[in-house]
Structures are given as structure tokens and as C-alpha cells.
Records
---
Amino acid sequence: METRIGLGYDLHRLVEGRKLFIGGVEIPYIKGLGGHSDADCLIHAVCDALLGAISGADIGELFPDSDPRYRGVSSSELLKTVMDLVRKKGYKISNVDTIIIAEEPKMSPFKDEIRESLSKIMGIDKDRVGVKAKTNEGLGELGRKEGIASFATVLIQKER
């Protein structure tokens, strides 16, 4: 059975006047992530990991910020579209592992809800989704609470 791996990364600046979405979950906080869509950096990293695994375009090519159709769109909808591409290529997800890097707000209390959200969006069992929450130990832009970053890796297999 053919197996492929993909790696994704995304980073967005924290800004005033926006809601904060991570992994399809609204996180209570005084700021949100700035971007053309809802700027859910965790879902964007997962999308790029999946697109990389199928040798597809990256998320910026597939959903350009110059296209008004994607202004304010829920990143969950983008992930559903990416999942359709994965399935059309004949693959299924073996597992997804993610890291959220944020000084604030603390992400640990939301890890289980994020795992549940991602598993529902992707149509896979929750035990196939890993979510880890880290800080940047006060270093750099992330450490100064200027943004949130995420990494994702996926393993996909060709369906029989």
C-alpha cells in the first residue's frame, strides 16, 4: 500500500477586532488572527500538509487571498475542500499530528475540543488526530504574543 507524508506550517499575526479560531474552535481571547479568511493557522497548516502529501498546490495557490470568495471564509470549509481532493486522489488519512505555538491564550484547555473538531471536519476518528500546545518561551514574535503559529504532519495511504 502506498504511503505518503506531508508537512504544513502557518503563522498569523494577532490583531484587534477579530475572533480567534484554532482548529475550527472559537477560543475566547481579546484578539484574533489577521488574514483574508478566518485565519485559523492550525487548519491552514493541516491543509498544507495534506496538499503536500498529494503533491498538490499549497493553500495560498488553491485559495488565494486575492479571490473575494475566500474573504472571511471559515477555514473548516477550506479543509473540507482539501479533503475532497485527497479522496479524489484515492487516499485516506492514517493520522494527523499538530503543534500550536502560542504564549496566549493557553491552548491546553482546548486540545480535546480541537481534536474533536478536526476529526469531524476530516471525517476520521478522533484517535487519529494529535494536538500539542507549546509556547515559544517568551522568544521572538511568538514569545511577545504578536502571533500564533502551527505545524502539522499527516500520513496518508492509498485506499485499496
Note: Strands lie at 3-15, 20-22, 25-27, 32-33, 91-101, 129-134, 147-158.
---
Amino acid sequence: MRCLCIFSFISITILVLSASQVLAQSLAPATIYGTVVDYHTGEPLHGAHVFLSGTRIGTVTNSSGWFNISRIPPGSYRLVVSIIGYERAPVEIVLREAEQRTYTRRLKPVIYQMNELYVGNLDNRWERYLDRFERLFIGETALADKVVILNPEVLRFSSRWWGRFEAEAMAPLIIENRALGYRIVYHLEEFYHSGTRTRWTGDSHFEDIAPANEEQAEFWQHNREEAFEGSLRHFLLSLTQLQLRQNGFLLYESRRDLHGHYRRNTFRINPERIVRKIGDDHFYHLNFGDRLEIIYACQGEDPRYPRWFEQKNRAPARVQTSYLQLNRRPVTIDPNGEIVETYGVTRFGYHSFQRMADKTPKEYRPENYDPATFRVNNCRPLQ
């Protein structure tokens, strides 16, 4: 079974959070402010991008190196500072309700050799590796057809005869997603594939592409809603609020038998057994045994999924079936519906099929979203 272990850090543009996409609306937002300076001289750095991994929330430093980011939904983030000529400086942070944090980030200069970045042997083998990377990283869903890496020449690949495949980027990847209406700058830190397993981490920032007309704006809105519905984030938000059935999810736990098979040992599970609130900060611990089976009944499978799943002779199912396995116990879910621990879980099935082409910024929600009342169009709550 194909799987995906990718809790990559998705970062942001310098846009503020729109009112229709506010996460955890009942929680008082947090604020971050501070300065960015040269590591050696202490001189302020003007024009540095300061952003939160996994969101579109961020800003740019002024002439004094000062930045201020407000209206941040409480949660777990990675604060990233990026400016040409300096190393990036990420730091893990947890923001509580109404919290104010001050940071001084000291960046070390770095010198890039342009011939290292853009000159290489981009031969036929490199082209084959690029195609493989795009299928693994961008994905093979219907949305992937409208996603393009604008500067693939910065990628370098390595492959081993036993199936190991790795990629590195000598500069940030510029990705244009014309299916969802985003332009993404992705700082790839690690990309690794072996056998049926793929994992990656990195920092990226999203910005909205200006739609050409109202029709295109509606097209992107529709696709974004469909990308969210049934996603892992949608599932985790519904799980922490104990609203799985209302949001179209059925949940089972699977245990391996003596032969390593799951199907004979699958049974319905009460979500209250596996998720527990941590204090009063809207964080949760997720803990379960071998594997969760997640059925989303409000959308059918992408017609391409059976072939990707190596079952090309069957028709797409009317529901989406995914599996979740913990790599450590427990893992933490933050108020944004994100797993805090990098590589904390491995996805199998349909959630593994959905990759960068189906990714929305961390703070994106359908308009007026509330996990307690959310209903997918034309989908009745499960009984």
C-alpha cells in the first residue's frame, strides 16, 4: 500500500488572514513582533520576509529591521525569516490565546555560487527524474494537471539501484497552482522516496493569484473547498470537536493479526477513546493502536485513484478511504487541525494520494466554516 509521511512546514506570503478564513474564531488571536539583524554586525535587515510556516500570515521588515504580525490564530507554528544573502532562521513556537511574543532574529550571511544553482547536466536522465519527482511531490490527482514548477532547473536528484530516490533544491522552488489559484515559493529541506514511502519537509509561502475574471475566482473557490473537504485537516478538526459523523466521516480501528493483515480485525471506534484535550489551550493528544481507517462519505474517489493505487481494473469508489498510523505515541493536534510533530504520522490510502497539488494554506477554511455545524453540499450527516 502506498503511503505518505509528509508533515511538511507550509509557510506564507505577506498577506494577512482574510475574515472568511479565520481559524478558531472563538479564540483570541496572538501577536508576534521583533527585529531582524545581521549576525555579525547587528545592523538591521530591511526587506526580510518574516512568516509563519503553514499559513499566509506574515510581513516584511522595515528600514529598522522591525516586524509586527498580528491576528494569529493560536496554534503550533514555525517562525521563518528569509532574505537573499542570508541563511533562513526557523524557530518552533507555540502561541496561546491573546499571547504576545518578541523575537530578535540574527541571520548569518551566506554566499551562493550561481554556477552551483543553475548549471548542471540536465540530460534525459534528469528529465526522467524530474517527471518522477513531480508525480511524487505534486501528485497525480486531477488538480495536478494545472500545477507547474516554474524553475525545475534548480533541482538535483540522486537514485540508488535498490529504489531510493532523493531530491534537493539549490534555490527555492517556484510553483504555480492554477487549479487552486496559488503561487507558492517552496524551500525544500528534504525529499526522500523508497519503495512505497514518500516523505518531505520544507518551508513555503503561498500568495493568491489574481483571478482573470469572476468565473475563474469561482472556479478556484470551488476547487479549494473540495480540496479541504475530506482532507486530513478537515478530519482532525472534526475529530477534536467530536463531530466526525456530522462532517461525513466514519472511523474504524484496525489491528494486525498473526499474518500482518488488518481487514479481519477492523471495528468501529469511539473517537473519545483516542483524542484527549490537553489543559485549556485547545491542543489535543491523539493516541491509538495499530492503524485508523477513515472513511469520508461526502466525496467519491478521483477517477485516477484506482490506477495510482495499482487497482486500475476497478471503478472509482463512492467514498474515500484513508488510513493513519502513528510514528510516535501520542502525537499532538493543534487548534489549526495540524499534527505538531514532524513525521508524527504516516498516511495511507486516499490521504496519501493527495499531495502538493491539493494543498491549501494552513489557515484556509470554507466560508463560515465551523466543525460543529459544517455541512458539505449535497451530503447528509451519517447516521
Note: Residues 214-228 form the longest helix (15 residues).
---
Amino acid sequence: MRFASFTRAETAGFGIVEDGYIRTVPADHYADLQQMIAAGACAEAATLAVDPVSLVDVRLAPPIPRPGKIVCIGMNYVAHIAEMGRKRPAFPTLFTRFPDSLVGHDWPIMRPAASERYDFEGELAVVIGRRARHVTADRALEHVAGYSCFLDATLRDYQRHTSQFTAGKNFYRSGAFGPWLVTSDEIADPGPLHLETRINGRVMQSGRIDDLCFGIGALIEYLSAIFPLDPGDVIATGTPGGVGAARDPQVWLCPGDVVEVEIDRIGVLRNEVIDEPA
């Protein structure tokens, strides 16, 4: 199934995406998608969902609008490590994003006033379905609710102010997450999925998920040894080669650019770039 979170007439909701419509889940059953996931009620939602609404009549929010954790993995594709001139890491490189740094599908992303070195990173997002603590890699996918697309857009100069990535990754509404969550029963093995990032229709990044240095199972094992992963937590798994900073000449996102992150069997996350309002 595909689940989307949305707003309509300033009211938030969520439901099942089918044939260009969202069948909404009544709020008196579950307040949001995260609560439904935590209850293990994805199958039940199919019987609860009513009142189909056209996708053109809503604004899609990030599938999990306010996750408890958004854990991002840097330097996790071999090609991207090489193009950035780094050594292959012995352990996953971790940083976090805050919820207000992300928008949903078809919302504008903002190039901030502070910098023009605004780069793109298409990624696969993993959404946790049930609490994971000290989980081994071979059991890790049992804890996954589903998958989505993620745009980890980055301000490269701010990223490099220190050895920590947080500053460059958390400008307000600079990244995106969506368009929806595809449940793990439809994607038993995400490894063969293909990810492509396009700018104004031009392919900039292309790679398979199984080219990750640290696969999804290994990431969940590593993270769950540090802290519990709770239902609705998000792991952004890293980006393939082809980012703008590594090109000659370098490519930075500008107002009017349209960024698309497509992962087969999931969909396309599309966002237009605007300048941050004065």
C-alpha cells in the first residue's frame, strides 16, 4: 500500500493512495500516519479508509510530518565517497535533520539567503515500523514500515564550516521527503531498486540501492545499538555519485530549477527551487 499525509483547507490528514485519489483514514481512529504505524494497523487502515479525495485537491506533506528522529547517513555510496575525495568509512557517518528543514512533494524548496552553494542529494528513506533496539542486520527489515524518496539538499559551504555536517543540512525548508510511503510488504528487498535524481529533466545521479557501503540492515543494527529506533523514525540512507559539488564546473540549484528524485516501485518526489523570501 501507499500512504500519504496531506493538508486540505488547513486541515491535516492521511490515507491510502489509489488511482489518483487518497482514501482518508478518519482522525477518530488514528491521528496521523505515525500513530497508525506504531499501532501496527496498516492492514486495518484499508478497512477504515473512506471519503476519497483527489490528489490534485490536497497538498502532500512529508509522509511522516514530524518524526521523532531523522537520522541521515553521509558518504554511503562508493562512487560518492570517491568523487568527494574521502576514504571509505569504517563506520556509518551520521548526522541529523530537523523536521522543519523538509517539505513534501510539489512544495517549493528554498535556497537560503545565506549561500548560493545549494546542492542536491537524492536518497532512499527508510521509515521504522516497530521499535528496534539491539537488532541484528539479518532481522532488521522486520522493523521497517516502508520506504520513500528523500532530497537531502545541502548548503556545501555551511556543511564544511566544521567537521560536522549539521549546519549545511538544516536550513529551513531546504530539503524534501515524499511523495508517500510504500509499505515494506510491497518491497521485500530494496537493494535492486534504482534511484535517479534529475534537474530540469537532466539525469544527474543514478544508482542502485545495493551499491550502499552500509546496507539498510547494517544501518539499523548500528543505529539500534546506540538508541532505540521508534515507529515513524526516518533513516535517509545516503546519496549516489553525481552531486553538484563534485562536477566540473560545479552545479548549484537556482530559483526555477525543478528537482526530481525517482525510485522505481516508489515514485517521484518533485520540488521547484525558490529563493528564500526577504
Note: The chain has six helices and 19 strands.
---
Amino acid sequence: MWEKLKTILKHHKATIIVSVSASALTVIILAGIAGAVMWTNNASWLDGISSSLNKNGVPAIDSNGETVKRDIVSEESHIIDVVEKASPAVVSIVITKDVPIIEQYYQEFDPFGDDFFNDFFGNNGFRFRIPFRIPQQKQNGTEKREVGGGSGFFISADGYIVTNKHVVDDDKAEYTVLTNDGKKYDAEILAKDSTLDVAILKVKGNGFPYLSFGDSDRLKPGQTVIAIGNALGEFRNSVSVGVVSGLSRSVVAGDMFGKSQQLEGVIQTDAAINPGNSGGPLLDIAGKVIGVNVAVSRGAENIGFALTSNMVKSIADSVKQHGEIVRPYLGVRYIQITENLKKKNNLTVDYGVLVSRGKTPEDLAVIPGSPADKAGIVENDIILEVDGVKLEPGKSFASIIRQKGIGQTVKLKILHKGSEKEVEVKLEKAPKSL
């Protein structure tokens, strides 16, 4: 224990005062941090501080090669520091639209009338009756109103912004970017990716604070993450903290209008993500963007999902370089093979992706004329590997393909009618319609 304490003090440059009594050992660390930490007879405190040290007692390095201190006080300080630095780069996206002006009025209506009562009850009838008040509506022109909101964040000083496609999906609406200092900017939508639910916006100006992308391929379950966004479209720059709960999840996300889409290789987190958080950043402890918040599980607590930063970064780089989203294209629809899918369909493998048609007859398994079609891939083929990478759980087929280049030839190992074979496919530029 004392050797561990010496190692910690060496790296934290702290002064130690020890007092011993018959009942307890009290250690007070007076370090270069706000205040002192005091613990009584609890070795786990040392373990808590040294959890960021490797086996040689050297401070741990995060996914971007930076030193991270994780003692009880410094972890909180890191989070506070990250939030202070990142918040100015996070924006709210306000959606406005021309909507009908509906005027409501009431019309008195007596379903029986005097004749009914006189005929049925005689000339005297009832002395009192209660007529109905029927609500009526009429349209009286239109007016611009806020109809929704989401989140986004700057990725460059010259005004490029990342958000979700579903935040800016209404072509008849107008979008305004509201920065943390209360300034408003008209937003231009440069590109939308329907496959990944990503959109790139641009506002006029320069000198904007912006966030940098981290490497999402290095994420580990249990890693601390921070979500910032316009929660409920009302509470700007709301902060929530959690951990990476899972990696390479595949989910079907739907919106309030009944639209749904398959999201591949997303990050699962227990950091609170609420409506309005869509498009906001998911940050690591070093303040790097490792995800873009995209969906939350309905009927569950603290199950949210974020797109991986590596996939989003490739889209952003493409738009900045080419003015549009340029991505490689294989041309197949598929589902990830699981143990359950294997059992139900008597498959011989429990990994890979099954080439399968979509929900409607128009959603063919292999798109005619696509690179996959040219290579002879057909419905019910199982793609097992891409360039030697086995498509096991945790390995996203879409993510692997997206990291390839247009015109690049990839080798696929395929299970075709019970026999394995290798095919070469030359990737092409994805059509704009996809």
C-alpha cells in the first residue's frame, strides 16, 4: 500500500501528512487541486486514484494519446473543464415553418328546437333546455412559428456544423442556429446522409469555437462520456454524464412521423439523451467528439445511442472537400447474423451479414447494376469477411465499407449455398438517391 502511495505522490507532486491513532489511519493529500481529499482507513481510495495508472505507475493515456488523471477530485474537474470548453461550440437548431392560423369559435346549436318539444310534450313543453356549444375552426392565413428544435456543434472556425438529418429533414422549413452566447444565424443545409442520419450545415462568419473529433475505434465499455445538447428543445446546453454501455449496436430508429431507419455500429450510452439532444456531441473525458447523439430507447431508462465519430468525420471531410457526401458503395441490403437468427433459419454460421431484401418488395437485396451485382453477389449470400476482417459482433459491415475509398477493390469471403468463396468487388461512388 505504501509503495503504491509513493508512486501516486510522485506523479501528483503532493505533500502528505499522516496521523496515526489507535482507531484509524487518516491520510490527507495536499496537492495542486482545489481543496484536499481525506479518507479514513480505506485502501480503495488509493485504488481509485491509481485506477488511471498503468502497471508501472505511469498515468494512463486516453484514446488520443493524452494523459488523463482520474482521482476522485480530478475526474470531476476534468468534466467541468470539458463542459466549459465545449459548450460554446454546441448550438441549438431552431426549426420554423409557415403554419396555418386557426381561429376557433363556438356556435350555439339546439338539436331539438321548439317544434320538437311542442310536438312531443304538448304546447307547454319544458321550461328550460340546454343547447350545445359546438366548437368551430377556420383558417385565416399562415404565420411562421417554431415547430421544433435540435442540437448541433461547430467542427470548424468558418461555420461548418454537424447535426442529424432528421433534425433538418423538412425541406419546407427554415433553420436557425442559436449559439451559446444568444446570437442567431441563418443555416444553409449543405448535405444530408439518409443512411447514417447525418447532416452538415453552414453559417456565415468566422472565428467560431469548434470541437475536434476523437477516434471512436478506440472506445471501451465503461469509458466516461459527456452529452451536451438542447434537451427537449427548451433547455440549451444541458449536460449529462455517463459511460459507454455498449459498442457496435444495430438499432431501428423511428421518428414521430412514422419514418424509420436502420442504424449500424452505433454507440450505446447511459448518459441521458432526450428529445432535442439529437445532433449534439458525445464527448470523451479529453473533450474530443467520439459520437453524435441520435436516438433513445423508448420505454427504457438511460439507453441512448450515438453515431460513431469516425463515420461522421468521413462525411464532414467529404462535404468540406467536395461540397457533397462522396462515399463508397457496395449495393446490398443485409441483416447482421445473430445466434437467434442462426437457430431460426438453420444457418451454419453465427457471424457475418445475410444479404436480404428490405421491408417492401421494392427494396431488393442486391441493387441492379451495383458493384455487388457486377461481382455476382445474390440474395441469401452470407458475407463473412471484408479484406480479412471477420464480421463478428462488434464489427460493423457498414463502417468497414465506409472507411474504404471509391475505386478501391475489396476482397469479400462469402458463403454461397453452403460453400465458401472469395470475390473481389470494386467500390463505386454511391448514387445520390441512396
Note: The chain has a mean pLDDT of 76.
